[in-house]
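#struct-help
A.M.: can someone run this one for me? Single chain, 76 residues.
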Amino acid sequence: MAENIALTVTELFELTHYVRALEQLRELQRMGIRAHRRADGTVCVLRAWLAEPGQMGAQSGPKLRPVRGLNNGAPA
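D.P.: on it. Structure tokens below:
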């Protein structure tokens, strides 16, 4: 039997520990997992999205801006 293209309702619950779609979406976003809400209101997470490099924990840290007046590592 072929594997489903998207996570099942049970798998979404196991991943998020939530039943309601809005709570699932928030938790998936917090986890850095790509998800969409279908027209019927259910959550969709494609298995291919979980396999994408950098998908899990993809939340990056703050980006630092260079400080004005400094050489930014260039020799003086």
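A.M.: thanks! The helical segments are 9-16, 21-30, 47-51.
D.P.: also worth noting: Residues 9-51 form one domain.
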